[in-house]
TrEMBL record:
InterPro entries (UniProt xref): Papain-like_cys_pep_sf, Transglutaminase-like
Pfam families: Transglut_core
Taxonomic lineage of the native organism: Bacteria, Pseudomonadati, Pseudomonadota, Gammaproteobacteria, Lysobacterales
Annotated protein name in UniProt: Transglutaminase domain-containing protein
Residue ranges occupied by any Transglutaminase-like domain in the UniProt entry: 361-423
Domain of life the protein comes from: Bacteria
Length: 504
């Protein structure tokens, strides 16, 4: 599951082109080149130096360097835009790290009224409150107080009113898992146990966030039809009615809208559709698995891809420690899956603020689903096992729903197999279901993104709020991007009877 730093969302069950990641990629690429010539022949200071200053929390110095660099960089150059993004990244980091120590302690004390000073200080010194130093001042992540209870069993036991975490019910063994496995084995096929679902997803820009009369542009996630995974896609309605659907070839598919801002009124965009989602399960015999041939089709899924899938020294060391002398691709993948699964889940800061998400997950001591997935993808590719990204939204038979990220790995001769390292090893009474999410997944997930950091159609003009994927939506106007603190999003869903003739 995934929730991030700056969230404004209502999770409701009713009755129911180019800027993408290019700015972050440019950061890595330009940093590797040292000094880059601008469009008019003047050299700019290396972008890498700005990135390092931002990562080190030296914002004032970074801003001075950006100012000096922008004075000598062509306004429309990639360097200019990448430098401007670093300034925006600092603003976003400040939004995520908005608490001081007194505010963190006050938030924890609401959960633990008899909190002792020595307890709080011990947890702080142990690094259980995510923080960073910004221009000499220690600032704490806005979700650090709640993350404490994810990271510390001792702290959980001290809560006066221990409410259960809002985890997906599918993180425990359920009849649905057994249904999928039994049908897949009995019918000798991967795609089984379908669910028909109706979805309405919306994005509502705050009143007066944009001057009256100015056009707001919005992109909402819209799924692709994927054979055997999600089929029978049918658009029902949109608000406003006029829209543009990206082609199914778009790896991050969207429904695009334009609407004028009205004085004192929020501006709402929505899309409603139906589709059928299938569970997946493949029974793998590890002894049959062999190393893959790096074909042109698989080559992109074996390679590094800046900025978030990089084979760093730390990544190589961790991989060597986990894999040891194992040579069987299945068992290597299993070891890596289990190792990443052991990283505790915690709410994460916004992805656009992180220079290398895979490396961050490795070093932070905790991670959310997208961070875990990018780390696992990196480790698998490093070991010659193709791996790719997928993300979207999950729901259940009850009232639960949330954004979620997962992935796929390729094992010869079986082909592409799903993996959900965040759900990981399933606790429960049936040993046969413990490894369900290593080679299988449920029928309660809709994929919006078949890759990360890909182009929108039509393209976004300004910086994206989310540079990795698209689950909440995006919005902008001629004056700039509209960030997450300027709009709300909503996901409503309803399970439907399967249509006549739908295979079960």
């Amino acid at each position: 599951m995934r929730t991030r730093g700056l969230l404004r969302v209502r999770h409701v069950r009713s009755l129911g082109i180019f800027l993408v990641i290019v700015l972050s990629v440019a950061t890595i690429a330009l940093a590797g080149e040292g000094r880059e010539a601008t469009g008019d022949g003047i050299e700019a200071p290396p972008l890498a130096e700005v990135v390092e200053l931002v990562d080190a929390g030296r914002f004032e110095q970074a801003n001075h360097l950006i100012d000096d660099a922008l004075a000598s960089v062509a306004p429309q150059s990639g360097t200019h835009r990448a430098l401007e993004f670093q300034r925006e990244r600092m603003r976003r980091i400040r939004l995520d790290f908005r608490l001081d120590a007194a505010q963190v302690e006050a938030a924890v004390r609401r959960q633990i009224p008899d909190l002792r000073d020595d307890e709080f200080e011990r947890w702080r010194r142990a690094g259980l409150f995510e923080s960073r130093v910004i221009d000499g001042e220690v600032r704490y992540f806005g979700r650090a107080p709640s993350n404490l209870f994810r990271l510390s069993e001792e702290a959980r036991a001290r809560r006066a009113d221990p409410k259960p975490f809002n985890d997906s019910p599918l993180e425990q063994q359920q009849p649905h898992h057994a249904e999928i496995r039994e049908q897949a084995l009995a019918q000798s096929r991967r795609s089984v146990a379908p669910r028909r679902v109706r979805v309405t997803q919306s994005l509502t820009v705050d009143a007066d966030a944009v001057p009256t009369g100015e056009t707001i542009r919005a992109w909402l996630p819209y799924p692709r039809a994927i054979d055997g995974q999600q089929e029978g896609l049918h658009l029902l309605a949109t608000e406003p009615a006029r829209h543009v659907l990206a082609p199914e070839s778009a790896m991050q598919r969207t429904a695009y809208f334009e609407q004028p801002a009205r004085a004192g009124q929020p501006t709402r965009f929505s899309v409603s559709y139906e589709l059928t989602v299938f569970g997946q399960y493949v029974a793998v015999d590890p002894d049959e698995v062999v190393p893959v041939e790096p074909t042109p089709e698989l080559a992109p899924f074996l390679a590094e891809r800046a900025p978030h899938v990089i084979f760093t020294d730390a990544m190589r060391l961790f991989s060597a420690q986990v894999v040891g002398d194992e040579r069987n691709p299945y068992r290597i993948a299993r070891r890596l899956f289990d190792a990443v699964d052991r990283i505790p889940w915690a709410g994460a800061r916004e992805y656009s603020t992180i220079t290398n998400i895979g490396e961050h997950a490795l070093k932070a001591g905790h991670a959310d689903c997208g961070q875990q997935t990018l780390l696992l993808i990196t480790l698998l590719r490093l070991n010659g096992i193709p791996a790719r990204w997928q993300s979207g939204w999950i729901f259940s038979d009850g009232r639960y729903n949330n954004m979620h990220d997962w992935g796929w790995l390729y094992l010869a001769p079986y082909g592409w197999l799903p993996m959900d390292v965040t759900f990981g090893r399933l606790p429960g009474d049936d040993p046969a279901l413990a490894d369900f999410y290593f080679g299988g997944f449920d029928a309660y997930r809709i994929a919006f993104n078949d890759d990360y950091g890909r182009e929108f159609v039509p393209a976004k003009t300004h910086f994206r709020s989310e540079t990795v994927d698209l689950q909440r939506g995006e919005a902008e106007w001629d004056g700039g991007n509209l960030y997450f603190d300027q709009w709300d999003y909503d996901f409503q869903w309803e399970l439907l009877p399967l249509p006549p003739g739908q295979r079960t």
